[in-house]
Amino acid sequence: MTQYFATVARGLEEIAAQELKDLGAQEVQPDFTGVYFRGNQELLYRVNLWSRLLFRVFVPVKNFPCRNGDQLYREIQKIDWRDYLTPDQTLSVHCTGTNAQLNHTHFTALQVKNAIVDQQRDQTGRRSSVDSQEADLMLNLHIHRDRAILSLDSSGSSLHRRGYRPAMGAAPLKETLASALLRLAQWTPETPLYDPLCGSGTILLEAGLQSLNIAPGLVRGEFAFERWSDFNPDLWQKLRQEALEQQRDKFPAPLWGSDRNAEIIQQARTNAQYCGLGDSIQFQVQDIEDIYPPTEPGILICNPPYGKRLGEVEELGSFYKLLGDLFKQRFTGWTAYILSGNKELTKKVGLKASRRFPVYNGSLPCTFLKYDLY
Length: 374
What we know:
Strand content: 15-25%
Largest sheet: 7 strands, mixed
Oligomer: single chain
Helix content: 25-40%
C-alpha cells in the first residue's frame, strides 16, 4: 500500500479522516490541515472522485533534509525523474513553508525545477517545459524547519472546485466547507433541509449532490493523475461507471432555499442545472421576515453576513435578533444551525446554542452553532 497525504481546511481534519475511512482508507492519521492515509491506486482514484471535504491528495515521493538551496538541488537530483516525466511533458512546482535559508517559495520552486530539467538535459539533451496551469506533472514541496517533503499532486486544481458554479454570489462558501457543515449538522438525505439565506446555493447544491448520490468528481474536468505514466484508464472508467450506476433519480427528502435577491436566486438555479440537479431544489425569492417552515420539522442551516466594519456590525445586530425570533416563533421542532464569524452578532440571536463547532471560512475563524428549537 502507498502512503498518501490529503489537505483539508483547518479544523476539519477529524471529519475528513472519517470520510477517508468511509471510502476505504487504511492507517488514517489526522495532522494539521491534512490527513495521512494508506491505500492502493484504486483508493487514490476513488478519493479524488468521491471526497466532499478534501482539497488535494498528494503522493509523497521523498522526505529529506533540506537546509539550503544547494542541498535541495542535490536531493532532488537523486530521484530518477524518468520514472515520472519525459522531456515531452510539462512540469510545475508549488512550494509551501520556509526555513532560514529557503525563505522565498519562488526561489525554492526554481531550485526543484532546475534540478529536474538539468538531469533530463544530461540524460537526453532535452528538457521539460514549465506550465503553471495545466502541467502533465504537478509537484508540491513542503518545507518544515530543516526537512522537506516532495509529493506528486494527484488532484490538480483543488477538489473544492467541483466545476458546477459558473454563477457565484458576493461571498460564496467553498463547496468543501458547505459539505463539512452538512456533516457536522448530521444531516442525511432523508431529512428535509432549508436555507433561508441561500445566496448562490452552495449548501443546498452540496446537499443535492449527496441526495442523488452524485460523486462530486464527476462534475469537474480532468484530474492530474490522468496524465501520469502509470495511469490506469480501465480502472478509472470502472470507478466512474460505478459512480454513475449508484446515482439516485430523486431526492429522498425535499430541499428549499430562499433569498431576498432575485438575481442571486437565478444564479442558484443556474448552478443547480450545471451540477445535474435540474429543478429539484426549490429556490424562491423571499424576504427573511416572510420565511415559514416549508415542511414538517427538518434542519435549517444558514450563513448570515458577519459584518467587517463597526457600522455594519451595529446594523446587523437587529438582523441576527430577527433570526433568533423567527427560529423561536415559527420553527418549533426544527434544528437550526448558524455559521457565524462574529461573536458579538451571535449573542444577538438570543438563543442558547446546544453545540458549538469551531471551523474556518477561508482564513476567518468561525463558529458553527446548533440550536434545538422546542
